[in-house]
Design goal:
The chain has 128 residues and is an alpha+beta fold. Helix content is 33%, strand content 34%. It has a five-stranded antiparallel beta sheet with strand order 1-2-3-4-5.
Amino acid sequence: MLFNKLLRIGIASIASFGIITSTEASLDLLAGVEAGIETDTSMTTSDLEQTQKALSTEAVGSRHYWVNQDTGNAYEINIDHTYSYGHYPCLAYELSITKDNVTEVKSLDACKNSSGQWISITPAATAL
């Protein structure tokens, strides 16, 4: 029973993955952690693009802040440090999301994949 349920979930995931473009897939993978923080603070496509820009251009110790005018959510990325995972450049950063004067902070890691997109990772992740 459990195996069948997992198989159906896997097939549905593969089917849905096949219909998104590579750029959308990269943004979706980056959103995996961020969007899961809180449903009403999940990132829009423009927020994900801001995240990609900040991770690509900001220096260690810098902060990048923006407000999504459509949702009213405020975001801040603070880049903590860089490191490598194999031959992939990676960085650790904090993502702060503020909605209705409530701020949630999440420590995250991302590595740049072979297409040049930042992908959220966990310490056990290996698929870039």
